[in-house]
Every structure is written in structure tokens, then in C-alpha cells.
Amino acid sequence: ARYAGVAALVVMAALVVIMFGAANASLAEAHRALKVEMAERERAEAALLQSQKMEAMGQLTGGVAHDFNNLLMVASSGMDLLERTEDPVRRERLKDGIRQAIERGASLTQQLLAFSRRSPLQPEVIDLPAQIEGMGVLLDRSLREDISAEVRMAPGLWPIEVDPAQLEVAMLNIALNARDAMPNGGKIVITAENVSDYRDARLAGDFVRLSIHDTGVGVPKENLARLFEPFFTTKGVGQGTGLGLSQVYGFTRASGGTVSIESEVGQGTTISLYIPRSRKIAPAAPPPSKAPVAASGRRKVLLVEDDNSVATLVGEMLHELGYGSTRADCAQAALEALDREGGFDLVFSDMVMPGEMNGIELAREIGRRRPGLPVLLTTGFSEAAAAATADGLRLLVKPYRIDRLAAELEATLAAR
Predict the structure, then answer these.
(1) CB 215 within 8 A of CB 177
(2) Does pTM surpass 0.70?
(3) What pLDDT, on the 0 to 100 scale, is given for residue 239?
(4) Alpha-carbon torsion 88, 91, 96, 99, what sign?
């Protein structure tokens, strides 16, 4: 009987081992199947994402190409007409048109970069009422004569910390959408007020609510949820890229806030930006910068630019501002010019150029070879701009006007 009991125990143990082995085999097989399924899902998601990217690029290309072709048309035809007229009034009108086309192109580029979040934000503490007041002329130019604008700022608004340029772009995008929603005229009301202890699914705290209300046609409920989607637009073909409100959404989220929209067909639309309260104090407005008054050649600039057309125009701008300049087309040529000529007061260099060194590396090498020689960098690439800012270098973003160049040159020399 004893041996029979032992045998039974052995048999039971064997059965348990077999069962566990089968269970482990089943688990291993299930694990392999799960890994295969996850891999298939990842491939499907990658294919879907690529398809969405291609569709988005197709939608984007048409709108952007249309907008830029219009801007290039204004600039090229304006230049042709400038060469054919001596009337000073007409020449000024043509120059204004060309300048506006350039500014619109730069604004469109900023919208694209802000949407993709590849444009580095440069936040600073601002006085919101003063910022909105300073946009008065820009808003007036953007709206038609049959649309009035009213600003209502609550007293004691908290300071906020945002990128002022991107805030203006966001406000302008909302205003343009409001304008298009009022084909027969109407009214835009801009309000701002403090909101204590605001809460939603993602945020909580003190915020400043900046709202823009229009008396337009409103938005159907089925479109409300899509208004902030990139490339979504209710306008006709060629009348918009669908990036305006996407920039608003991207800017507000990147600033630590959120955005909401309320609309009723026939009654108008209200878009509200919730921007976190800043505990910092907004700085006093700096005095206006003075343009350089030095005579030609008094200050010598080493201009590092690989593009011949850009180098020629920037050289003319420097001459107009009273600077002498020597041009180098790459970092190595710039270092050779420093060793050969010397006597430079400032190096003004592009960031992206051919050769083994970029603008940041050139600035570092100049710092080692010529301590104290100021360097001002410039670029139109957002990634390069972010790198320069992180490195603590002075940067002038392309495109820029001559007054902006003058201010940055003077500031760079003064910082020395």
C-alpha cells in the first residue's frame, strides 16, 4: 500500500509537470502570436501615418503654392513696373505692395513652422493690453471698411509669458477668419479677463482668457470639432491653406494653455485662448533703438554668406547703414580673412553653409581665436535658430528688413 501511494504521487507529479509544460508552451505560443500581431499593427499604423502625411502634403502643396505664387506675382510685377515709372507717388505705392508681399510670405512661413512646432518660441513676459493696442494698425489693415473692431480689456489683467510675435500671428489668423465669416460686414470684439482656478481635463490654475468674437455666419456643429485640424478649411480652393487656426492651437498649447471655440450658425463665433498667468513682472518698454550714424567704412563687418544674391543685397544694406564689409562664402574662408586682413569690428554670418563648419561652430572658433570679437548669426532654418538660441548666440531670423538689421548690429556691438 505504501508503494502504491508513492507511485500515485509520482504519477500526479508527472501529470503536473506535463500540465505546466503544456501551459508554458501555450504561453510561449501566445506570446509569439502577440509579438507578430504587434508588429503587424505597427506596420499598419506606419503605413496609415505615411498615407496621412502624403494626403496632408497634397492638400498643403496646393494652398501654399497658390499663396506663394500670388506673392511672387506681386513682387515680380512690382519690380517690372518700378523700372518703367519715374512718378514718385506711384513708385512708393509699388514699393509698399512689394513689401507687403514679402511680409505676407514671411508670415505664411511662420504659420507653417508654428503648426509643425519646429519654430522655436521665444517667450517673454508681456503687458497684454499694450500688446493688443500695438496691433491696432495691423488689424485695421487686415479688416475691411465694413467691419469694425472693439477692444475690451478688463482692469488689472495678470501678466502672461508668451512669444509676442506668435501671439500677434494667432490674433491675426483669428481676425482673418472672422473677416471671411462676415462677407456683408459686421463687428469683431476682442476681450481679455482674468480667470481664477480654471480647470479642464488637462489644465488647472490661473489663466488670462483672450477672446475674439465675431458677428459672422457661424460654424455648423459638424465642423466645430475639425476647425483646429491642420489643412482643414471651409473656404474655396486656393483661398486658404487651413493652417491659420492650427497655428492658433499649436501656439496656445506650446505656451502652456488651451483654446476653445463656441459658435452658432447665424449668430457668430467666439474663439478663446486660455494663457497661464505669469508670476513675473512685465518689463518696462525699452527706448526706441537708434539707427547707425557711422560714416561708410567706419566700422568693418566680415559678412559670411554662401548665396551670392543674398550676399550682394546684404552688402548693399551694410553700406547703406554706414558699414564697410568683406565677404566670405564659407567658414574656412572667413577664418582665412580674419588672419589675412584683421581689423574687423563684427562678424555677421549665416548659419547653414557649405564646408565642415556651420555658423555656430564658426562663432565658437572665432571666440577661441579672437576673444571679444562679436558675432551675429542669421538663418531662415528653424532648427538652426533653436540651436543658436540654446548656445546663447545673438540671432537675426531671415527675412529681415534694414531697420531690424541696423538694430541688431548696434545691439551686438553694444553687448561687446
Answers:
(1) no
(2) no
(3) 46
(4) negative
CA angle 16, 20, 24 (to 5 degrees): 170
Beta strand spans in 200-229 (E): 204-214
Q: Which three cell numbers stand for residue 61?
A: 502643396
Q: Which amino acid is at 115?
A: F
Q: How far apart are CA 317 and CA 299, in angstroms?
A: 14
Q: What residue spans of 83-155 are helical by DSSP H? A: 88-116, 128-134, 136-142
Which ranges constitute the DSSP H helices of 323-399? 331-340, 359-369, 382-390
For CA atoms 15, 21, 27, 32, give the dihedral sign. Answer: negative
Number of helices (H), then strands (E), in the chain: 12, 12
> What pLDDT digit, counting tens, does each position of 81-112 carry?
888 888 888 888 888 888 877 877 776 676 56
Q: Are 192 and 160 in contact (CB under 8 A)?
A: no
- Contacts of 343 by beta carbon, 8 Å cutoff, 6+ apart: 300
Q: Which residues of 402-414 are buried (b: 16+ CB within 10 A; e: fewer)?
A: eeebbbbbbebbe
pLDDT above 90 for 270 = yes
C-alpha angle 180/181/185, rounded to 5°? Answer: 85
Residue 47 has a pLDDT of 65
Residues 6 or more apart in contact with residue 261 via CB below 8 angstroms: 219, 224, 227, 228, 269, 270, 271, 272
203-237 tens-digit pLDDT: 889 999 999 999 998 888 877 777 777 655 655 44
**What are the residues whose beta carbons fall under 8 Å from the beta carbon of 202, sequence distance 6 or more?**
258
CA end-to-end span of the chain: 102
Which amino acid is located at 406 in the chain? A
The Cα–Cα gap between 210 and 151 comes to: 11
